[in-house]
Amino acid sequence: MARERAPGRHQTIAAVALLVPDYDEAIAFYVGKLGFRLLEDIAQPGPKRWVTVAPPGSGCCALLLAQAKGDLQKEAIGNQAGGRVFLFLETDDFDRDHAAMLTAGVKFEEAPRNEPYGRVAVWQDPFGNRWDLLQRA
Q1: Is position 7 within any domain?
Q2: What is the pLDDT of residues 63-110, one digit of tens each?
Q3: CB neighbour list of residue 20: distance below 8 Å, 6 or more residues apart
Q4: CA-CA distance, 11 to 116, in Å (whole number)?
Q5: What is the pTM of this model?
Q6: Taking Cα atoms as reference points, which of 137, 104, 101 lies closest to residue 122?
Q7: In degrees rounded to 5, what are phi and psi of residue 28?
Q8: How far apart are CA 105 and CA 124, in angstroms?
Q9: What is the CATH number of the domain that holds 50?
Q10: Which residues have a Cβ under 8 Å from the Cβ of 102 and sit 6 or more positions away?
């Protein structure tokens, strides 16, 4: 699928909010284990922080790590997509990244498989969010 730019208009999804139980725990996983870059960690009023991370080589979209507040948000951690795969980590070398993630202790739900759109395997972050590791065909 070609990604076309409408003439005279440009918008980008800059970040996707991801509910996490604790900022530092999430940073330790995404930055420490997966090698994402910590883009911002800015204190806000109260205990709130603006924390964004992105995988190496990512040019646009980041994850906004949002520490859950209140029962409703806490209950949604790991289930923001109702049990479906929620996020897609695209790679230029599936085997390299799959091996590195296994070494880092990432939990994969399945063995890698080939689909018409590419090589893929479903994994979970420590908070229960389901991801695809994907290398497009």
Answers
A1: no
A2: 999 999 999 999 999 999 999 999 999 999 999 999 999 999 999 999
A3: 26, 65, 66, 67, 68, 77, 127
A4: 29
A5: 0.90
A6: 101
A7: -60, -40
A8: 11
A9: 3.10.180.10
A10: 108
